[in-house]
Structure formats: structure tokens, C-alpha cells
Design goal:
Blueprint lengths: L2 H7 L13 H12 L11 E5 L2 H7 L14 E8 L4 H24 L3 E6 L3 H8 L5 E10 L17 H4 L6
Antiparallel strand pairs: 1-2, 2-4, 3-4
Length: about 170
Amino acid sequence: METWDAIRSRRNVREFSSQPLDQATLDRVLEAGRRTPSSRNWQPWDFVVVTDPELRSKLSQVWRGAWHVAKAPAVVAIVAPIVESQQEREILHFDLGQLVMAMMVTAADAGVGTGHAVVADQDLARSLLDLPEDRFCAYLISCGYPDGDPLRPMKTIKRRPFEEVVHRGVW
């Protein structure tokens, strides 16, 4: 798939087929995350890949909107350092946003659907993933083949019109 097609095909998938994910495909998604640019090459992330159904089910309890985590063949927990300063937090979340999008577009390129979730219950996430005390689980990305419609470039999308979003020179 071309990059533009992958971007136009990517959508939040929360219902997954029973087809297992190929390890090479999952590793490619993880490699896309590893290669993501970061401020001053900080690379403030680690990934915990969860495929065990029981652990995924428990992990889906970290946020009320994370129910799809239990249904996905694989879940990638994005783990980051706990930082003190506001500036570091801003840089961290900017870098993590780039990372999540890179992983999701790479997944779409392979026909793999993704859904994302934040983590509200850090204590639960920390205990389930056995995270070090100086780390937190920022996001979860559920990964699997969509149940039903495969990914393909969408012709119509629910987005604000281009002319409303784009301002040239000034607002």
C-alpha cells in the first residue's frame, strides 16, 4: 500500500477477527515505533506487547474506553518515563503522539486495524505489566485484522471541511 493509501485507510478498529497477527507484521509495527523521530533523539519509549487473552482482559480495565483491548489479538502498551518538568511532559507527549501515529499507519499499511486508549488507572497498569516505578503506561494500541470490512481508502470521512481547517498566512 502507498503511504497516502495507508493514511486514508487508517481508522479506529475496535472489533477484531479471530485471525492471528503474523509476528513479522507485528514486529514491523513495533519497528516503526522504534524508528519514530523524537526531540533530541530522546527515544523516551518502551513497548510491552501483550498477547495473552487473560492479561489483555485485565488490561482493558485501565480505562472505560479500553474495552477493545480485551478483543484484540495483540496489544502494545506504550511505556514512558515519569518526568518532572512541564517542558519535559510537553515534549514527551508530542514524541509519543508521533510514535502512535507512525505505528498505526504502519499497521494500516499491512491491513492491520488499530484502536488506541489512554490509561487512567496507572496502578493497575503498573501491576499488570510489572512496570518499574519510574515508568508509566501512556497509551495502549490494540492491533488485529478488522472483523468485517477490511481496511481500504475511505471515500467519505467525518471530518471538518478542508477549507474550514486550513488557514493560509493568517487565521
